Amino acid sequence: MERAITFNTVHDYNVFNNNPTLHPLVNIVDLSMADPRSGHRMTFNIFCIVLKNIKCGDIRYGNHYYDYQEGTLVFFSPGQVIDVTNPEVYQPTGTALTFHPDLLLNTPLGKRMNEFSFFSYQTNEALHLSEREKKIVLECFDKITYELSQSIDKHSKTLIASNIELFLNYCTRFYDRQFITRENVNRGILEKFEELLNSYFVSEKTQLIGLPSVAYCAGELHLSANYFGDLIKKETGKSAQEYIQNKIIDTAKNKIYDAGKTVNQIAYELGFKYPQHFTRLFKQKTGVTPNEYRSMN
Q1: Which GO terms of the molecular function aspect are on file (predicted)?
Q2: DSSP code per residue over 30-85
């Protein structure tokens, strides 16, 4: 594998791909201008969205590989380290949008960046584009390229940031579509999630770990927490945290029927550190306390 490469600025990424720097904070990069290369490790301290026309090596983030094929968008955010594994020399092709976080300062987009959760997606989570969607993406890139070809003035930052926001809004729509078109895959994840929770509450993990978290469940299913949360929300209409809480309450109801157990015992068995937290959640979800529920039933 080649030496590790760190992209601290947009200019660093431009140089790596033999592209001119038209603006210090943003660029549309033509990857076909890059020199042929093989595997390498890259650290991003900038935002980068890559649309490649051919499959040219597997992209690994952490211990897992991206579901990365021809005609997909992959999103990288500052702080990510990825490996491109390819023993053969290949010629990159495609297009990348890259921009520095400073571009977002004092812009409406800067206030919304946390909404675009797909920047934190990890494995098996790339955005697969239809030909029509790919055309829209390239049209968005063309608008940004047009602004970069003009002389920088007081409107440049606003227009460029607005066009990036438009592009990201389209990506949100396309991901919503992908959650639907990959429904069978998603249902399999939902079933595994249900099985994971069922086994969790009959194991010793409640005593060793405590209550199951969204991050824990996502990790067990080899998904990023954001992708997992978005998927569960799309499939069930509830957040992953709400889904877990409902499972806790269902499990608690069954335990409450055992008159030999106190409410405190049940709380500890479920993984609550403090029984009053269990009582508060139970009343929030059912309208009655655990003791009141026991009396009613």
Answers
A1: DNA-binding transcription factor activity; sequence-specific DNA binding
A2: EGGGSPPB--EEEEESSEEEEEESS--SEEEETTEE----TTEEEEE-TTEEEEEE
**Nearest to residue 9, comparing CAs of 156, 137, 21, 107?**
21
Note whether 92 and 34 are within 8 A (CB): yes
Instruction: Tell whether 73 and 91 lie within a shared domain.
Output: yes
Phi, psi of 90 (to 5 degrees): -135, 160
**Count, residues in the chain:** 297
CATH code, domain carrying 265: 1.10.10.60
- Is pTM beyond 0.70? Reply is no
Environment class of 67 (CB within 10 Å of its CB; exposed 0-12, middle 13-18, buried 19+): middle
Q: What is the pLDDT of residues 258-288, one digit of tens each?
A: 888 899 999 999 999 999 999 999 999 999 9
pLDDT in tens, 133-179: 999 999 999 999 999 999 888 899 999 999 999 999 999 999 888 87
